[in-house]
Specification:
Number of strands: 8
Low-confidence stretches: 303-308
Oligomer: single chain
Strand content: 5-15%
Structural class: alpha/beta
Radius of gyration: 18 Å
Length: 308
């Protein structure tokens, strides 16, 4: 029951100020956010790669209000790609982008977001890696999928994200699987109304399994975004039944969560990618991590009480 409350708080400026000022916040944020600058995150990318893990990088930030901010977001990704170029990581470090950061919600936002994300996709391709378009709330998805389809005309490895709790997602999965897309499946981390999204966790898990099956049996490249041991095990079995080799799908987990399991999967030969976020505008991302798991919230509260 706490999840929806926390997700509502993620949109509150008052709560943003309170959480940012809380004594224990910095300690907890550091668990999920790899730093604030490119200089902070590059050593982490190198260290994860040396452990046999792959990475997807997210420059955190949402809810921009000006075209200039959208250009700054684009430039932040271009700076990141420029720094990674010399590391020779290739496919081991891809990018994840939220189109809201690139101006999707502004006037003319669809065209603006496409114009901003294209040079990022081009620059990523030049260093041998890819970009995945993150899913946000349901009102943005038609635009996101249209941009994904447009980018794939020139960069077919461009990926996208689908969310198991949305009623529309099984149809989206069938379409994407049929056209050979790279698709990350997650449960979903936005507060969505009952008219568009499943509300009960057991039913979301069932939908997740159905969608994994669609992706594994399709022509694309499934990316299983989950920390749930049961879903990971089911994903492995579905991949086996579909005759997929270990390099024909991957698992993804968040930076700072279940590190031992990440290492175990990589050691078994699975492609294991760590979703690694960094940047100064961390609040929305951080609050969704608290909403996903009560233990994260308890860790945060204890830290505040300890430091207070």
């Amino acid at each position: 029951m706490l999840g929806p409350v926390i997700l509502a708080a993620s949109r509150s400026d008052k709560m943003r100020r309170f959480v940012s000022a809380a004594p224990g916040t910095k300690q907890v944020v550091a668990r999920f956010i790899a730093g604030e600058t490119v200089d902070d995150v590059v050593p982490i990318v190198r260290e994860l790669s040396e452990r046999g893990l792959e990475v997807t990088l997210d420059v955190v930030g949402e809810d921009i209000t000006t075209v200039e901010q959208s250009h700054a977001a684009r430039d932040a990704y271009l700076e990141l790609i420029g720094r990674l170029k010399g590391l020779g990581l290739g496919e081991r470090a891809e990018m994840s982008v939220k189109l809201s950061m690139f101006g999707q919600s502004l006037d003319g936002g669809h065209e603006l977001a496409l114009a901003n994300v294209r040079p990022v996709v081009e620059a990523a391709a030049e260093i041998g890696t890819t970009v995945t378009l993150d899913a946000e709330d349901h009102t943005t998805l038609d635009s996101m999928f249209a941009i994904h389809e447009e980018l794939r005309k020139d960069f077919p490895q461009t990926g996208c994200v689908i969310q198991a709790y949305l009623f529309r997602t099984e149809d989206d999965a069938r379409r994407l699987a049929a056209n050979g897309s790279r698709v990350r499946i997650v449960k979903g981390a936005y507060k969505e109304p009952a008219s568009v999204a499943i509300q009960e966790k057991p039913e979301i898990d069932k939908a997740y399994v159905r969608i994994m099956k669609i992706l594994m049996e399709g022509k694309g490249y499934p990316m299983i975004g989950s920390h749930d041991p049961r879903l990971i095990s089911v994903g492995q079995e579905l991949a086996r039944r579909a005759g997929r080799k270990l390099d024909e799908y991957e698992f993804q987990m968040l930076y700072g969560i279940r590190g031992e399991e990440q290492n175990r999967l990589a050691a078994e030969g699975h492609r294991m990618r760590v979703y690694t976020a960094y940047g100064t505008d961390w609040y929305g991302y951080f609050m969704r991590r608290l909403a996903e798991k009560p233990a994260n919230l308890l860790f945060f509260v204890r830290s505040i009480l300890t430091k207070g």
